[in-house]
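[Automated response] Your request has been received and processed.

Submitted sequence:
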Amino acid sequence: MPHSSCRTSLAGFLEAYFIKPNETELARLSGSQGDGFSIEEACHRLIDRGARCILASAGPDGAFCMDRSGVLRHFPSYDVDVVDTTAAGDSFTASFAYGIASGFSFDDSVRLAVEVSTAVVQRKGAQSSIPERGELLTMIERLGIH
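Generated structure:
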């Protein structure tokens, strides 16, 4: 079962268009904690409870998405030497939100989020590891996002 604070706030939370947990948060929200944890099963549980779209960040495994179609989609990460993961999750979420707010497709926004968080983990520090606007624009161009 989710932590009691998760249970009481989950109803309103499920009304959001996107839910963006990491793997630990996904397990807690879905009540899927334990040795048999499955991202797919956890996403199904939240979809069955009314969620519209779950975008779960999964560290070196990239990200997974499920909407009400019930199909789990994988957006793989890159194999890199990890230096510091401090700002990776926040950078993932921020760059995904930037993509959506900029009118990029869902898939392109997730691809950008994976790209940015992959760059972040290769650098030391939190704020100092986050790409600046010029680097972000270069990533967008390299990914072919329009």
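Summary generated for your ticket: The chain has two domains: 4-75, 88-142. The chain has six helices and three strands.
If you did not submit this request, please reply to this message.
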